[in-house]
Write a structure and sequence with these properties.
The protein has about 230 residues and is mainly beta. The chain contains 2 helices and 15 strands. About 25% of the residues are buried.
Length: about 230
């Protein structure tokens, strides 16, 4: 079902605050904001990870018209430690029912292109062209990964489907936690169909292994996480 959110943390009601051990917590909230004109509204979905001294804020904003249809969605990731950085992706439906995607990245007050660690183009079993971009921040025992995957019928067309994913892992002595949020966007019946999966909880070691595999191959699949692959076989 489109325009839905599901997660693996017990399906808590919004808003909620969940403590995961002594040094980790996750906060979930939603908000409706009316537009000043046009009769539409914005729907905000927000998740915040707090692990040790690090905080990651991830938000998804759906732009509804006066009929309730979604024609634009924005994803924003804000890192608050040690120096705040922001990454923003905007996906909107074109008049020809494709997706137009724009992104920006900044540190402090400076905006610049996203520093993609790796890009890859492949053709899947159905003949669609799959463009994958990844941005990895990796330490010895922690890291986070952003993935933008776009599918198109040919290399010259705009995409007709996109997936945005964010993974966070911390395997320090004080904590061993991992989280993921995956959002899928496509055009259906002249409007955006959006599904959000997460936040899902993972062992940090499984996500760190996946980060290394993605950087070696340039290919991303959710099942590259050993923890997720094990659950898929159950």
């Amino acid at each position: 079902m489109g325009n839905s959110i599901r997660n693996a943390l017990g399906n808590p009601r919004f808003p909620c605050f969940i403590e995961l051990g002594r040094s980790a917590a996750i906060e979930l909230s939603t908000k409706i904001r009316k537009k000043l004109s046009g009769g539409g509204f914005w729907e905000d979905w927000y998740v915040s990870y707090k692990v040790d001294e690090e905080t990651y804020d991830l938000s998804l904003v759906r732009d509804h018209d006066k009929k309730g249809n979604v024609n634009k969605v924005s994803f924003t990731l804000l890192r608050l430690h040690p120096r705040w950085t922001i990454l923003s992706l905007q996906i909107e439906r074109t008049e020809t029912d494709f997706l137009r995607i724009n992104w920006t990245h900044g540190q402090g007050a400076e905006a610049e292109p996203v520093p993609w660690t790796m890009t890859n183009r492949a053709v899947d079993a159905s003949g669609d062209v799959v463009d994958t971009k990844v941005c990895l921040h990796r330490g010895r025992k922690k890291g986070d990964l952003i993935v933008l995957e776009c599918k198109k019928r040919s290399a010259d067309e705009e995409p007709n489907a996109a997936t945005v994913a964010h993974y966070f892992a911390n395997n320090r002595t004080e904590s061993d936690v991992g989280f993921s949020v995956v959002s899928k966007v496509r055009v259906s019946n002249g409007k955006l169909d959006i599904t959000v999966e997460g936040p899902e909880q993972h062992p940090a070691s499984a996500l760190l292994y996946m980060f290394d595999q993605v950087c070696r191959s340039g290919i991303w699949e959710p099942t590259m996480c050993p923890h997720c692959d094990w659950f898929c076989m159950l």
